[in-house]
Amino acid sequence: MVETSSSVVAREAEHFGKMAGDWWDPDGSSAMLHKLNPVRLAYVRDRVDQHWQKDERDLKPLAGKRALDVGCGAGLLCEPLARLGAEVTGIDAAGELITTARAHAAASGLAIDYRAVPVERLDGDYDLVTAMEVIEHVAEPAVFLRSLAARLALGGLLILSTPNRTAWSKLLTITLAEGVGRIPRGTHDYDSFIPPERMQTLVAAAGLRCEDIEGIAFTPARGLHLSEDLRLNYLVAAVQG
């Protein structure tokens, strides 16, 4: 696959597009994303503060920065990024999700540039690039990561998240969560999960340097939370190598 090809898998875009109607319902088909989002956002905020040496009390740490959320869905991460001061662009392969995202942002009084386009066909550069729970759904992870790197401005920060390829992740994410309907059936393919070791290799091959890896763990007492335990899910922060 050449660099200008799209890593979008049509059946994946169709699957997620069907979730557009209740995307913003915390008890709907995207309920697990609603639970994940505060954890991911806390990590993003911490890495932003460290990368740009911001005061953690600053309400607008991304003021003056351009942010790109790849695989944005209907805007769960885009909207808080905009509230943190960023000029936000959100892209997704599912047009239905982009329509929902635009409507929700407008109702929330937020100006976010939403586009139904794959990252490989996007121009421009961004200070912050995020791709949460996306890389396990693309056709070519290596091509996808190179495309993310290509959109990163000089001195920029890339953050992504993905399930680990472990028995624990398969049990919680597919057997249990999809089994009881917390995640729509067919959302995940275990064979597409990427272990951290391979992810670091892919990041390096894209010309980036991995700065940090942190887990998202689950316990009945705490729910989903940031952790040194990488078995379930993990976040990666990378910069230009």
UniProtKB/TrEMBL annotation:
Pfam families attached to this UniProt entry: Methyltransf_23
Keyword set includes Transmembrane: no
SUPFAM superfamilies named among the record's database cross-references: S-adenosyl-L-methionine-dependent methyltransferases
Enzyme kind, highest EC tier: transferase
Binding site for S-adenosyl-L-methionine: 40, 71, 92, 132
Top-level taxon in the UniProt lineage: Bacteria
One GO process term, biological-process aspect: methylation
Catalytic activity line of the entry: a 3-demethylubiquinol + S-adenosyl-L-methionine = a ubiquinol + S-adenosyl-L-homocysteine + H(+); a 3-(all-trans-polyprenyl)benzene-1,2-diol + S-adenosyl-L-methionine = a 2-methoxy-6-(all-trans-polyprenyl)phenol + S-adenosyl-L-homocysteine + H(+)
EC number(s) recorded for this UniProt protein: 2.1.1.222, 2.1.1.64
Gene Ontology terms, MF aspect: 2-polyprenyl-6-hydroxyphenol methylase activity; 3-demethylubiquinol 3-O-methyltransferase activity; lyase activity; polyprenyldihydroxybenzoate methyltransferase activity
Metabolic or biological pathway, per its Swiss-Prot or TrEMBL entry: Cofactor biosynthesis; ubiquinone biosynthesis
Residues passing through the membrane, by range: none
Matches recorded under PROSITE patterns: FUMARATE_LYASES (PS00163)
Keyword vocabulary terms for this entry: Methyltransferase, S-adenosyl-L-methionine, Transferase, Ubiquinone biosynthesis
Family per similarity comment: Belongs to the methyltransferase superfamily. UbiG/COQ3 family.
Its biological purpose: O-methyltransferase that catalyzes the 2 O-methylation steps in the ubiquinone biosynthetic pathway.
NCBIfam families cross-referenced by the UniProt entry: UbiG
Official protein name in the record: Ubiquinone biosynthesis O-methyltransferase
Organism the protein comes from: Sphingomonas ginkgonis
